[in-house]
Amino acid sequence: MKKIILAPAVALAFTGLVASPVAAAESTSAQSTSSQTAEQKKVEAHKAKKAEAKKKADAEAAAKKAEADKKAKEKAAAEKKAAADKKAKDAKAAAKKKADEKKAAEDKADKKDDAKKPPKKVAPKPAPAPKDEDKDAKDDDNSEDKVNPINASVQVVSGDVTAEELHEDGVTVKVTGLEKGDKVSAKSGLTGPAVTAQGSTATMKLRSAKELSQESVAYAVQVQRAGTSPDTVADTLNLKRQGPAPGNISLPTNEISIEDFEKNGIDYSGAGFTPEAQIKVYGGHGKGVWHGGEDTATADAEGNISGHLNAPAAEYLEAGTYLVYAVDPKTGSTKSVEFTVTDDSVTPIDASIKVDPKEIAAEDLANKDKGVTVTVTGVKKGDKITDSLTGKTETADADGDYKLHLWYEGKASDLEVGKLPFTVNVEREGTESETLNGEINVVDEDEAVDAIDASLKVDPKEITAEDLANKDKGVTVTVTGVKKGDKIKDSLTGKTEIADADGDYKLHLWYEGNPDSLEAGKVPFTVTIDREGTESETLNGNINIVAEDSDDDGDNPEAPAEATFKVSPKTIEAADFANEKKGVTLAVENCEPGADVHFEVNPKGINVTAYENSVKADDEGNASVNVFGTSSDVSAYVGAYTATATCGDDTMKDSFMVTEGANGGGSGGGDNGNAGNGGDDGSQLPRTGADLGGLTTGALLLLVGGAAIALTGRKNKIGQTPTSF
């Protein structure tokens, strides 16, 4: 047996270890190699098993984490849904409670109404809240099924504008195909405030963020409707050129007076024509080219032209729209531009509007007999006035203010609380038209405010300067027709007082200066009434200053009796009111003998033409007229009326009521002895609406059955007084 001696520090390749210098035991090579291989496999198997166990543990940990994350998300979603369901349920319960309370209040109010009064319209109530969540879900599904898809469109309705006008003033666009409650907002291209549709259409005022240089601008608006996805509708606005542009012709002005046009003609310029071409330029008006309105311009190397056109002959020259157009013979294209010739005698429109009352309930705005009064200030006789609410065009019959009666022609339920926009367009021949923008503030019925209808009376009628300058004396001014909370301010003391009740309010006025500065005669003053939610009203009055008494007894002369105004009867049946031998008598007593006494009758919220007439007081200072209806449709007169009498500086008001008949306040005394006169004295006024000299403040004339419903009157016999009834 051979012995193998291993040298010191020899590496054993199969173990990777360094052996110490030892002598190996005698063994065969095969046995040694086999033993070492088995050991190696055992080590590797142990490592593999350990790695497998770690992999399995990691997988189980990942699965547990994923499961925990899933449960956490499901829990959060469930909590969110539960909170949303609770919020919806609470909201429905609150809505039901509010609706029930409103109905209870309305039912209570209805019981107090007169039996003949039409039942009050109750606003639609929200449906009762379902009792379970499944019903909620079902209702929601049904509601979503009923939502109509958005099918809207948009277009500009305010006419052509320049880039400068678009940036500074903006344009009015109209969005159609809407439903009430749709939210409409500017999306791109142009900017402007969002609006809420009150019906099937909505108008918006849009403008550019900066002055544009391009010839057109694309813009879009977004329409949002509850229960469906928003939609975007778009349009393109072409801008009016401000100066010569490629392929166009322009003028130094778009408006010229007849005098300047006749004297100087008009210059033109253009660009974008065929270089060196002979461009034919014509002036047109009416049916063709005006005499002398032709010119030939040679385009320069860049295609620019310029020239001059003479005005038409004087017999053909008139205010209106004219046209200058140029024809390029090389391309066959025609370029044109309009201009306006104005009559210097025509004043440009400078109008404004005012709405009264400032606030109104939806039911009243949708009632043609109520509505609002829009006063258009600054009109001229012959102006055409068109409003966007009714679409009607009226013609001003005098210079100054013109009153429009506007109402909403749809259903009251379509109106939402808030501002309802409208426009009034004024057209005047010979000058540019003007569009005025206005708003009607729609409020809840309980919040509607009555317009101010007040008058004042001074007592005593005459006073000395010493007494007027004495704070403890002075005069008492009674303001009639105030409402609780009205603020009342006089110009003499400058103080503001607040009415503590409806009806009459008494002011104590005096002169705060030196009485020596007061002269005998009239001292004018004003009383201004402010009422929240409507226009203020200023009343004018006078205090008569008289000289101190110079008699030996030292007594002041007796002041004349105060003028009085009486309406009789205060309540009358419609049949008696339409009887010219009955009607209602308006009488003034103690006016200045021979003075003009002016009577007016104005209907309240009904379409009956207002009445006015002036008569002279007799030698005793008395005057009266009889007012009656002229239509066979007597029911049209049913309603309330305000009567006014003006005697010198005093304006006195009263009222009367025309009833259907069941509760008419007796017509006895309404005839007051005039049957024998019957107008035979020639003092009876015309009784047709067309001939009636009525108020020129926009009073309405309603045609019923072909007959004009109007008020007219006749003078009573001179000398009749209120005590004669």
UniProtKB/TrEMBL annotation:
Q: Where is this region: Disordered?
A: 23-154, 659-690
* Compositionally biased residues, Gly residues: 662-681
Q: Which UniProt keywords apply?
A: Membrane, Signal, Transmembrane, Transmembrane helix
Q: Which domain of life is it from?
A: Bacteria
Give the signal peptide, or none: 1-24
Where is this chain compositionally biased, Basic and acidic residues type? 39-117, 130-147
UniProt lists compositionally biased (Low complexity) regions at: 23-38
**Mind telling me which residue stretches traverse the membrane in this protein?**
692-711
Protein name per Swiss-Prot or TrEMBL: LPXTG cell wall anchor domain-containing protein
- Organism, by scientific name, is Brevibacterium permense
